[in-house]
Design goal:
Elements (H helix, E strand, L loop, with lengths): L8 H8 L47 H6 L3 H17 L3 E4 L10 E9 L5 E9 L20 H14 L2 E7 L13 E2 L5 H4 L12 E4 L10 H14 L3 E2 L6 E4 L3 E6 L2 E6 L4 H14 L2 E6 L2 E2 L2 E5 L5 E4 L1 H10 L16 E3 L7 E3 L2
């Protein structure tokens, strides 16, 4: 499917051809997309993340016990209530007393403090299943699912600057709870079940287990059914894959979509505004998601579009976290990363040689 071409060759080739030859940050829009210059605040590696690890801070609780003993225990308990209520609302599991001889898998809570672009803070908790306890061919088989490439994101940002495309951000809420799973997976009761549970679902019985109907974060095969679900939907409304990146979807009406797990970026030309609005409306009707408006954050990157149309990327939160981890938050600033008179030479026994 990745090799499909669009009916309009010009629409297809502009965003899809050689994404590696364009940069994410453009200082001045030019008429040559392949010759744009890069201007990044910090170097970024390809992001690898699960539901809640990206951008986590040193102050986030590391366990259920830490959350209850935290000075913010009320906020963390409310976050757990909200996540558990969402699982119940989506019929994620069914209480059972018999696991058909299969060993129930453990689960744990993961916590993250999220900082919004406007400076507000919200507390998020997520129930994760311990997928590392799964046994291949017993609880899962195929696990692979593609995600958007960082190099594609860099190219699309450059393309958007040079062609005055708008960029909107959609966030799918509890994405993995949309498709059903058909393999038998049983899970132990989560910590806090005694105060999380409602009277409508008496799973507080310690002899009770949970059979999963939907994929929880942490499940080895969780990403695959979700990707198949949204991939089928996007193709049903007229999108096709780019040849350069299977997670880049193109529609011959001036609308592009980059998919990274449950984050969606919608790129569209000004004259394609109505088409983009229809696409977003179809997505919002199909899945429960937040319409975040113009993209401000994506994969822990902060996206800032200036008045002249240029785009800059930065990761101040990540930098602050790394500095705090090594106790360097109060270090003095320097214009260069190394002393300018240090010469590094791998061919000498003395790796650092000071030059006059």
């Amino acid at each position: 499917m990745a090799g499909h071409r669009g009916q309009n060759g010009a629409q297809e080739m502009a965003p899809a051809a050689h994404p590696g030859r364009s940069a994410a940050h453009v200082t001045v829009p030019t008429a040559h997309p392949g010759r744009s210059t890069a201007h990044e605040t910090t170097p970024t590696a390809r992001p690898r993340r699960n539901a809640l690890t990206t951008g986590s801070t040193e102050d986030d609780p590391g366990s259920y016990r830490d959350a209850l003993n935290s000075s913010l225990n009320k906020q963390w308990k409310e976050a757990m209530r909200q996540d558990y209520a969402s699982l119940i609302e989506n019929s994620t599991f069914t209480p059972v007393t018999n696991t058909n001889g299969m060993k129930p898998i453990g689960c744990r809570w993961v916590y993250k403090t999220k900082r919004n672009p406007n400076g507000t803070i919200r507390y998020k908790a997520c129930l994760l299943i311990k997928g590392y306890e799964q046994i291949r061919a017993v609880g899962f088989d195929e696990t692979y699912a593609p995600v958007g490439k960082l190099i594609t994101l860099r190219y699309l940002l450059s393309f958007a600057v040079q062609n005055s495309y708008q960029i909107d951000h959609l966030d799918v809420i509890t994405a993995f709870l949309n498709p059903e799973i058909y393999t038998e997976v049983y899970m132990q009761l989560p910590q806090g079940i005694e105060w999380l549970e409602s009277t409508a679902m008496p799973t507080s019985n310690r002899d009770c287990f949970l059979r999963l109907n939907k994929a929880l974060y942490g499940l080895r095969q969780a990403l695959r059914p979700w990707h198949q679900e949204i991939d089928d939907f996007l193709q049903s409304i007229g999108f096709h894959h780019s040849q350069a990146d299977i997670s880049l979807y193109i529609r011959n009406a001036g609308v592009l979509i980059l998919l990274y797990v449950d984050d969606i970026l919608v790129f569209y030309a000004e004259e394609a505004l109505e088409n983009a609005l229809r696409v977003k409306q179809r997505l919002i009707l199909q899945y429960k998601m937040s319409n975040l408006g113009p993209a401000k954050q994506f994969l822990s990157l902060e996206i800032d579009r200036l008045a002249d149309g240029t785009i800059t990327l930065s990761r101040p939160g990540y930098i602050s976290t790394i500095l705090a981890r090594f106790n360097m938050q109060d270090a003095n600033l320097a214009p260069t990363p190394l002393h300018p008179k240090n010469r590094l030479n791998i061919n000498t026994s003395d790796a650092e040689e000071e030059v006059d």
